[in-house]
């Protein structure tokens, strides 16, 4: 927009609320906030780009979002391979500061959940990078960041908030504390949809790509939670970990040593003969709170 010289003068003058514009319409009154709209439109363009990136790209690899897509407690979307690659690189100290800012709170895949997303109709060109890849299965609207979207954490379904409210009938007078997911019927605690407080990181309802200020508040909650956990470990709540993990060495000559050895051997045998788990050890270990995650990512425990 080309600003006429008269308007420019008024823009520089902080006390002038109105400017008289002598245009073809014979002199219309332009408010000051009309005049500063140029700057606003530039900011909107930037915001649109950010919004488009949030709903079409993996937060870490920047590749186009494609299933399997993972979501974290902050409502950020990732491609599964993008997260795994990041965790591997972070384990080797090769992750960038911006990546750590986005996903530094993730300890492993257990901090994420696979999002159940509905692909947009196939009429969209797959290679059209502008198209939004997913829609709300309830309203069929493209997930483009122009309305609030939730992920129901127990089942992973990603739906528009308005769709969930309309189909589940959640209201302040709801007697039940849970509602069934409108898509898959898995119950979720709907308190977050009723109470008007800021989103909580442990809620069953996670807002996907929430406004920046909400996400910042949740990052603070995560940091506070981490601190509390660390404190508990330091003060040895439930016993000192190191003492519990390290098995005492046995003096064979000590009284009762033979029996203790027998018990230990029996326990080892039982563990060895335990039925195999559904997932391979390497996959299962990704979900465990194992301290040796670097080895896990490097596949050293797979053998
Ligand atoms: Zn569901």
Automatic annotation (TrEMBL):
GO terms of biological process kind: DNA replication termination
Protein name from the UniProt record: Replication termination factor 2
Cross-referenced CDD domains: RING-like_Rtf2
Location of the region described as Disordered in the Swiss-Prot/TrEMBL record: 219-303
Protein family according to the UniProt entry: Belongs to the rtf2 family.
A GO term from the CC aspect: nucleus
């Amino acid at each position: 927009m080309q600003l006429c010289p008269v308007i420019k003068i008024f823009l520089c003058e902080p006390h002038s609320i109105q400017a008289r514009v002598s245009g073809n319409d014979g002199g219309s009154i332009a408010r000051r906030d009309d005049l500063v709209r140029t700057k606003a439109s530039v900011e909107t363009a930037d915001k649109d780009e950010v919004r488009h990136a949030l709903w079409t790209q993996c937060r870490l690899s920047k590749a186009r979002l494609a299933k399997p897509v993972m979501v974290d407690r902050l409502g950020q979307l990732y491609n599964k391979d993008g997260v795994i690659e990041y965790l591997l690189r972070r384990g080797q100290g090769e992750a960038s500061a911006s990546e750590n800012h986005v996903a530094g709170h993730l300890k492993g895949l257990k901090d994420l959940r696979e999002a159940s997303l509905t692909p947009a109709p196939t009429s969209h060109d797959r290679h059209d990078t502008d198209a939004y890849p997913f829609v709300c299965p309830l309203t069929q609207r493209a997930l483009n960041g122009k309305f609030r979207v939730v992920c129901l954490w127990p089942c992973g379904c990603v739906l528009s908030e308005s769709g969930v409210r309309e189909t589940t009938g959640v209201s302040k007078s709801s007697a039940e504390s849970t509602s069934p997911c409108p898509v898959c019927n898995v119950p979720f605690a709907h308190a977050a949809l009723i109470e008007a407080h800021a989103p909580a990181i442990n809620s069953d309802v996670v807002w996907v790509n929430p406004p920046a200020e909400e996400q910042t508040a949740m990052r603070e909650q995560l940091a506070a939670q981490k601190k509390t956990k660390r404190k508990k470990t330091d003060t040895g709540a439930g016993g000192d970990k190191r003492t519990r993990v390290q098995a005492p060495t046995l003096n064979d000559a000590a009284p009762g040593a033979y029996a203790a050895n027998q018990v230990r051997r029996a326990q080892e045998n039982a563990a060895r003969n335990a039925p195999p788990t559904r997932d391979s050890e390497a996959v299962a270990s990704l979900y465990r709170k194992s301290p040796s995650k670097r080895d896990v990512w490097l596949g050293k425990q797979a053998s």
